[in-house]
Amino acid sequence: MTRLVLAVVRAAAALLPRGQRDRYLEQWRADVEGARELGLNPLGVAFGAIRIANRERKPVPLAVGPLALALRLRESTNIGAVLAVMVLANLGGAILLVI
What we know:
75% helix; single chain; 5 helices; mainly alpha
């Protein structure tokens, strides 16, 4: 079973870009080896690694509208800009509810 689990983890790491493979492979091997101590099925942990690898390969969707502005202003110290985005987002939501 251990060989199968490690093969699944290696396959998951192979799905990742080259720059991330070594880090994730080391982390996932440690997760699989420590899974039994926590009462988890190592094969389930390995399949979780495949799910993560598939998610990491997909492009991240771009934020649009008020969400994009909020993400840009997330660490802003300009309170006026942050409040303006909040007001616009709330007005947009209220207008959608009325229509």
